[in-house]
Amino acid sequence: MNGAEVANSATRKGSEHPDAPLAIHDLTVAYHRRPVLWDVDLVLPKGKLIGIVGPNGAGKSTLIKAVLDLTPRASGRVQFYGKSYREQRHRVGYVPQRESVDWDFPVTVQDVVTMGRYRQIGWFRRVSKAHRQAAYTALERVGMADFADRQISQLSGGQQQRVFLARALAQEAEIYFMDEPFAGVDASTEKAIVTILQGLRASGSTVLVVHHDLQTVPQYFDHVVMLNMRVVAHGPTEEVFTEENLVKTYGGRLTLFDEAVRAVTQHRAKK
Amino acid sequence: MIAEFANSWTAHDTWIITTGALAAVACSLLGCFLVLRKQSMMGDAISHAVLPGLAIAFIVTESRGSVVMFIGAAVVGVLTAVFTETVHRIGKVEQNASMGVVFTTLFALGLLLIENAAHHVDLDPGCVLYGALELVKLNSVSVLGMDIPQAALNCGAVTLLNALFVFVCFKELRIATFDPDLATTLGINAMALHYGLMTLVAVTVVACFEAVGSIMVIAMLVVPAATAQLWTKQLGTMLAVAVSLGCGCAVLGHLGAILLPRLVNQPATNTQGMMAVMSGVFLAVAVLLAPQQGIVSRIVRRITLSQRIAAEDILGMLYRLESPVTQGTIVTLPDMSSILRASGGVGSTGFRLALRKLTRDGKIVRAGAGCGLTDAGRAAAADIIRSHRLWEVYLSHHLGVPLHELHFAAEQLEHVTTPAMQQELANSATDSEARDPHGREIPKGR
Amino acid sequence: MWDFLSQILQSLQLHHYNTRVVVSGVTVFGATAGVIGAFMLLRKRSLTGDALSHATLPGVCLAFMLSVQLGGTGKSLPVLLSGAMISGLSGLGVMLFLRHWTRLREDSILGIVLSVFFGLGVVLQGMAVNMKQGQAAGLSSFIYGRTASMLAADAWLIVVGALVASLICALLFKELTLLCFDQDFAGAQGWPVLFLDSLLMFLVAVVTVIGLQAVGLVLVVAMLITPAAAARFWTDRLAWMVWGSALIGAASGLVGALASAMVPRLPAGAVIVLIASAMFAISLVFGAKRGLIVRLLQRRHLHTSTSSQHILRALFELREHGDEAVPLESLVQKRSWTPRAVRHALARAVRAGYVRQAGDLWCLTEAGGVQAHRVVRNHRLWEIYLVSHADVATSRVDREADRIEHVLGEVMVARLEKKLGNELDGQRMPPSPHVINGHHP
Description:
The complex is a heterotrimer of chains A (271), B (446) and C (441).
Chain A: H1 2-14, E1 22-31, E2 34-44, E3 49-53, H2 60-67, E4 75-79, H3 85-88, E5 92-95, H4 109-114, H5 118-121, H6 129-141, H7 157-170, E6 175-179, H8 187-202, E7 206-210, H9 217-220, E8 223-228, E9 230-236, H10 237-240, H11 243-250, H12 255-268
Parallel strand pairs in A: 3-7, 3-8, 5-6, 6-7
Antiparallel strand pairs in A: 1-2, 1-4, 8-9
Helix pairs in contact in A: 6-7
Chain B: H1 2-8, H2 11-36, H3 40-49, H4 51-61, H5 67-91, H6 95-117, H7 125-130, E1 140-143, E2 146-149, H8 150-168, H9 170-178, H10 180-185, H11 190-231, H12 235-259, H13 271-289, H14 295-321, E3 331-332, H15 333-342, H16 348-360, E4 364-367, E5 370-373, H17 375-398, H18 403-413, H19 419-428
Antiparallel strand pairs in B: 1-2, 3-5, 4-5
Helix pairs in contact in B: 2-3, 2-8, 2-11, 2-12, 3-5, 3-6, 3-11, 4-5, 4-6, 5-6, 5-11, 8-11, 11-12, 11-13, 12-13, 14-16, 14-17, 17-18, 17-19
Chain C: H1 2-12, H2 17-42, H3 48-54, H4 57-69, H5 77-101, H6 106-130, H7 141-144, H8 152-171, H9 173-181, H10 183-189, H11 193-215, H12 220-232, H13 238-262, H14 268-286, H15 292-320, E1 326-327, H16 328-334, H17 339-351, E2 355-358, E3 361-364, H18 366-389, H19 394-407, H20 410-419
Antiparallel strand pairs in C: 1-3, 2-3
Helix pairs in contact in C: 2-8, 2-11, 2-12, 2-13, 3-5, 3-6, 3-11, 3-12, 4-5, 4-6, 5-6, 5-11, 8-11, 9-10, 12-13, 12-14, 13-14, 15-17, 15-18, 18-19
């Protein structure tokens, strides 16, 4: 029986998920030696709307950033459709938090959405008419085509969010990561965004959304990931989104565990 | 060489160091707050921008070191802060950019004024940048029968002033620096504090520029404070460290200016520049060796910890492979290393080093091609396994970690478990559980 | 007097070969600094140039000492500038190192690199002055620039550096824009953010080095910030901003160099920077997009158009309830505004021909009726939209609609009508969804 315990750790590493849009193994992230995520294991199903919920500072945004190689990982492995992010970038779309950019920047709505095409355009090349058209189509999908030539500082919060969404649509990806797309938007924009997300799901895309409003979770998402430094629960919303799990997720942290995890990440932070 | 050096030391050198140290202390006191308030570059901006103030006062009074000049420069220094804020607000220009526009404009204006005034006064922009610490003794005043250089008096005065300011407003400054919102709710006027600080920076720059030049002022405003920040997080300690570093820079700077050029057979060079260089050296040392954040200390800590983890992994593995009947089982080295590697553990070098350490500590015995636990080793291993299985209980009960994930989590936590934490874990385990969630026995505590 | 004028004329015609060299060199430098500076401004790294330029001094001094040791005069500009480049890049390296390995903040890192490198430069300069051979006096001119002594070869050096920098910017315009606007998105798309960032800083180092001769190392930073910040007031398009910044930089260089050549006792570096600052001040006030006057006018315009619409709506709503002509007091009661504001708004409406005064009473003219109909209709469309589509509480809808309707133009109203088209027909006035000041709809 003791041998089983030894072998246990060996089998844990082996599993591969070539079909899953996203598979995360043992992901740990630390900022300045403070753990933000600890041992996250996730395998996400294809073609679902997936919500990530958790209290402030639970590491929701960090999870997305770590998965997209924007934040250094202390440990862990991330695979998209069984391959590394580097190989699968063209299949991934990203909507950062609205506050992460300077909306006073001297560009137009059309310019911002065209940025979603930059990867396809490639180094040194100018933006062609076809790419402009693709960006315009994305703008039409979010109902912002009339604003194409506006400077971005003239937009309201909801409009800014639609523009960011349009930029991700212009990426024509299969898995989308959205960091709080509903934060500070008006009710009609929220409805519009949900409709677009449902459209994406219908076309077979997987959408991962960091979400704050617990009330709307069952209504919006098929699948939910409950996060508080580690994955408390994940699975189909009706099974997982329970009172018990909510208490575990939002019920504050356990000091003893926190202390130990901090010590562990201090060791792993720069490995 | 040392004798020669000692002989050439004069009261003049002592005064240079004293003046430099006073200036450095005055600057590093304020510098701590600039650095913490993310306004390090304000020192740079103000020290460049005082030039027109100096020039105008100079043209008006036709002399150096007058009170008018002092006031003129201080006013322009404060205006730099005011203009920066104004351009930032009314022009919606980013803070740093507005600072850049303001101070370069003022500096250019100063250059222009000096160029045009140069035919009837001798002031050159160089003396603002470099100061003239070597000439410190030329302009002395007699105080209580002692010949004290004017520059040392000036620097001493601002040092006192700054120390007084920091002492009196310590509480307010601390709150306004770390939590401006709280400061406002407590009725502390953050705006007044900001401009007070800026005024003092301007006054300090002006008082020190003649002796040590603006470059050393900028260095002393930023570098000792930043260095201190790497060593400590306590504001009081930070101030003390920064002040000591400032003094250190003055002493080493002067010695370096005299001694280092001798290595290439050159006469002494500029002390103020060397002080700035020395502050950089201190910073480099701190970046490498600071106890918490230093690069070397981080590496050392990591290596020690990996070593300990490797050793503990070996002990734990040997313990698990034993059973009460087969105590003293000998496991061959290749088996051990392959098991460890399979569980994502140590590499071969770490493995060998850990084995050697365990043997030396008498925790394991080597026998032929393998090794086994000693009694001491078994006790230590039992302790680790105890932590491991207690963690499994804890994780399972309190965090609902599923059974198949328990081992890996506990595997990491066991290495950082202090005796106190182990006790707490044992206390939190309900109904005297003697078994972990996998049904394995938890070894008794010592 | 006549001599002086002809001298000016000569300068303006660029008769002197020397003036021609200086003016073209400085102008090209100004334009390049403007281009790179625009990106640095948008990247919010304006003061990086300050640190980098100060960091060039030790390299200049070291290059001088080495070349003197090797038997040269130490006067060769390419040698000195290579030294400057190397030490500027080391400064950049130290910055990146500190940023990655310590928790020091950006401003502290800039201050550290600036002062320690410059201190080292001063030390080396002190040693260079003591060298028997060579003339180290020229070294200090790098600090304030030595425009007048520029040779044709030096000007060519500037042109080559400027061409390289501008070419890189032109080729990577799209990549640099993305980097400056949204670094995270760029990283997620797979652009090498660190490389692009370092490249931009490298270009700053190039500009700094070619600017040493023109304006000196203390003032180089001005040319990296001021033209870009000035250009920002005139446009909301990045491409135009870059062109504008280049233009302002070039103009400052041109005018400054000419002025300095014509008038004695005008150090070129200082004059160039002061001219750039003057252009900044002018842009700050008169800039077409973000200038002070434009913004004040916009605010004023919004304010007056808002209050005229309010007065029309108040009169219209009172007329809906049968009061054709109303006294001032009932208008004052309609909203929380002062009698003075109402009188002002009424006076404007009378001037526009929308309102007529009859004794103490006020009423809408025919044109005013049409106009008021349009205003009220827009307002109510918005209210209905907000209630039905945006879940705004009925009690707050008046204020919300107020806020929106004044800001958005005809296009939005047309869209709104299209959207509500099924619910409303043609030009009919929809009823208000809420209680209007005591009257029930």
